[in-house]
Amino acid sequence: MKINKYEENELVLHKFGYYESSSSDFYNENILDIVIVPAVVFDLEKNRIGFGGGYYDTFLKKIRGGNKKVLFIGICYDFQIIEKVPTEEHDVVLDFVVSENRIF
Questions:
Q1: CB–CB of 43/84 below 8 Å?
Q2: How far apart are CA 97 and CA 74, in angstroms?
Q3: Closest-CA residue to 63 (of 39, 95, 86, 40)
Q4: Nearest alpha-carbon partner for 36 in 82, 83, 76
Q5: Can you list the domains of the chain with their CATH numbers?
Q6: pLDDT tens digit sequence for 8-27
Q7: Where does the sequence pass through the membrane (predicted)?
Q8: Contact 70, 21 (CB under 8 A)
Q9: pLDDT, tens only, 79-88
C-alpha cells in the first residue's frame, strides 16, 4: 500500500557518503514539518557551528523561504552547548535545541 507519493522515492548516495532522496520534492517545504539539524556545538541563542561547508544553512534558508512554518531542531549532548558561538550573516538560527538535560 502506498501511503503517499514520497514513499517510493529511492535513496541515492551523496558525494559526501550519506544517502538522500532522489526526488527534487525533497526541498519542498510543503512535505516537511521538522528538520533535525546536526552541529559540532550550539549556543544558548540556538546558533550552531556546523561541519564547515554551509550546506545546512543553505538548505534551511531555502526551506525557511516558504510559506509553511517548518521547525528546525538541533539535537546534541549537553557538553555541546556553550554560552555563545561566533555567527555570520548567512547563519540560520534554530527554533529549538534539545539535549539530554534541557530544551531551549
A1: yes
A2: 4
A3: 95
A4: 76
A5: 1-27 (no CATH), 32-103 (3.40.50.10420)
A6: 567 788 777 777 777 666 55
A7: none
A8: no
A9: 999 999 999 8
